[in-house]
Amino acid sequence: MRSRTVASAATAGLVALALAACGGTTQTGDTGNANAPTTALQTKAGGAGGDVGVFTWWAAGSEKQGLDALIKLFQEKYPNNKFVNLAVAGGAGSNAKAKLASDLQNNQPPDSFQGHAGAELMDYIDKGQIEPVNDVINALGGDKVFPKDLLDRLTVDGNIYSVPSNIHRANVVWANVAVLKKAGINEVPKDIKGWIADMDKVKASGVDTPLAVSGTWTQVQLFETVLIADLGAEAYSGLFDGKTAWDSDGVKQAVADYKKLLSYANTASDGDDWPVAIDLVISGKAAYNVMGDWALAQFNEKGKKQDQDWTWFPTPGTDGVFDFLADSFTLPKGAKNPGGAKDWLMLIGSAEGQKAFNLAKGSIPARTDIPASDFPPYQQAAMKSFKDDTIVSSIAHGAAVSLAWNADISTAISKFYVSKNETQLVSDLVAAQKKNAG
Ligand code: GAL
């Protein structure tokens, strides 16, 4: 990627300074980059005042609960500000991203919007649509409170353009305990082959569609986890920097395995959102769904308990790998209320904001200074994996590839869902890489 230059000197230079108390002026550390803003973050007691329009795709169900937790704190901490909820429904930003692109294009930016750390943010940076927020990151504590790995993924030529609110894991299988029990399955399969053998057992026990899938982006996510399983972490990461060919044997194997997996799945339509698939697991119409750990919030919302009702494991063959994505909030160029936007960024980056949000959302805090013991078992396990595992970037959620590349992969996967033509999918993936890789 052109400018995901990790200015390690710059990140190392992030100096942690005390978080400004309400009404104070927060001093920033030296980012070590000549272009980086060096001014101290100015904050005003009770907030800058005025409307603060925040754009996300957390519009409904369990996702809205995460956002609502943040809104509540924002109103408490910044009573001068009025939160304006600009959420557009549709998981993974399936509808939101087009609306956002046109608002940005028409110079009608929100005051802050949700984007994914990594390649997706590059799109906005390259188009000059977002501003550096080094002052906010520094005021929050810089690399004293955010993992270096994550700051590296957010740093472009020495500048940081967003504040991460959370980290999600994408390579998780969510499974119905009673369905597995009935099928006589009591071990986690080691690889895709073992998983397919288990699907046969589930089918034999009377469940016609052991695997739940939903609309196209959920299929892209399932496919990416099969790529990780069949290629391994290193070769998977090589798909994005040209070291692994998209028509290599590993990719062909993944395409074949993915096709086989789909033969165990329900029929989904393009626009089906992710809760539909999790609900199939909850009702026992399916045994499994591969979904990011926002699924946890859905189980919680439906009153379903870990180990009793549902269980989880990394997509078979990906144990020891954390397929990563992080939601991250920006300061758009031309935002009407940059002061209010920075209040929002300070809130989502604060320990209090991250705890409230992530408890509701199923993700883990991006900050490292929030005790794991404050979280339930699934999230404790995710925190441990994020620390110990090999981290790779999600395709479906903007960490590994640009918006345009993701769109081309999605079109290829959507075509494949109908045609099941393996040769065609491989050649579409090769073409997408050729067209979009920088
Ligand atoms: C991802 C996002 C998550 C979650 C998910 C489903 O792209 O990062 O926070 O919202 O989509 O909508």
How is this structure best described in words?
By secondary structure, the chain is α/β, with parallel strands linked by helices. Helix content is 44%, strand content 13%. It is built from 18 helices and 16 strands. Strands 4-3-5-15-8 form a five-stranded mixed β-sheet, sandwiched between helices. A hairpin with a 2-residue loop joins strand 6 (155-156) and strand 7. The chain is globular. The model is unreliable at 1-35 (pLDDT under 50).
Enumerate the strands of the largest sheet in spatial order, edge to edge or round the barrel. Answer: 4-3-5-15-8
The main sheet comes to: 5 strands, mixed
Tell me the distance between the termini. 6 Å
Note the total helix count. Answer: 18
Mean of residue pLDDT values: 91
What are the distinct ligands in this entry? beta-D-galactopyranose
Q: What share of the residues lie within helices?
A: 40-55%
Low-confidence stretches: 1-35
Name the shape in a single word.
globular
In percent terms, what proportion of residues is strand?
5-15%
Instruction: Give the total of beta strands.
Output: 16
Q: Structural class of the secondary structure composition?
A: alpha/beta
Cα Rg: 21 Å
Provide a compact summary of the structure.
The chain is of the alpha/beta class and 438 residues long. It is 44% helix and 13% strand. Beta-D-galactopyranose is lined by residues 57-58, 63, 91-93, 168, 274, 292, 294, 325, 327, 397.
